[in-house]
Design brief:
By secondary structure, the protein is of the alpha+beta class. The chain has ten helices and six strands.
Length: 231
């Protein structure tokens, strides 16, 4: 199975697709602070924001086309708070009225990539997302401490946490941890030694990096990098 993604005409949304594996295979899906709307050839479902990695078994011959939303775009378009979808993968039919699901499913079945992107653009024109989403995402991506985030936004840390739940599915502290893990893995896959990765990404030391990888991904940094390179 191979994975590809591209930007869409909607800020906060990318389109991704996989090729069908020849045989059933397991993949580790890492948390990324995003919400996805995938199509598997017969149904639409929602992959809510994950707090930790989960294992997914791909079926032989089954490909996916999907939209991935960041910065609160997904909850706004779907009309569902992210924290109600956290660590869940419900069918869209369990979240929306059946008539709406049927109309979108028919559109997507005819041309998945084009229909998903067109739906997102159309939906965005009539939906408002919390403006705090892109701001928090930018600061969390830069490793800004939560207290500094809250101060810059004129909020208390507790209020910021409450505002982030429907946008990201969890608070700014976990979001920052998830995004830092992504940065660390990018550097490690590029060949940077783990001690340098830890120092460059704001971990106290390599042991701290290892603990975070274990907590969020369920394995060791070395094993995870080997796994990611093998995809």
């Amino acid at each position: 199975m191979t994975y590809q993604e591209r930007a869409t005409s909607l800020r906060g949304a990318v389109l991704w697709r996989t090729t069908p594996p020849r045989a059933p295979e397991w993949t580790r899906i890492l948390p990324d602070g995003c919400l996805d709307l995938p199509w598997d050839g017969s149904r639409l479902f929602v992959a809510g924001p994950d707090t930790t990695a989960r294992r997914h078994q791909g079926r032989a011959g089954l490909a996916h086309v999907a939209l991935r939303f960041s910065g609160g775009t997904g909850p706004a378009l779907l009309g569902i708070p992210a924290d109600e979808l956290r660590d869940r993968t419900p069918d869209l039919a369990d979240l929306w009225p059946s008539a709406q699901v049927r109309v979108l499913t028919e559109r997507v079945a005819a041309d998945p990539a084009a229909a998903l992107e067109a739906w997102a653009v159309e939906r965005a024109a009539t939906r408002e997302k919390d403006p705090i989403g892109p701001l928090v995402l930018r600061m969390a991506s830069a490793g800004t401490p939560v207290a500094v985030m809250a101060g810059q936004l004129g909020l208390s840390a507790r209020h910021l946490h409450r505002r982030c739940l429907p946008v990201f599915g969890y608070g700014p502290r976990r979001l920052a941890r998830v995004l830092r893990l992504g940065r660390a893995l990018d550097r490690a896959q590029a060949g940077t030694p783990l001690a340098q990765v830890a120092a460059g990404c704001g971990y106290a030391d390599q042991a701290h990096l290892s603990r975070e990888v274990r907590a969020l991904a369920g394995t060791t940094p070395t094993e995870l990098v080997r796994e990611l390179r093998g995809r």
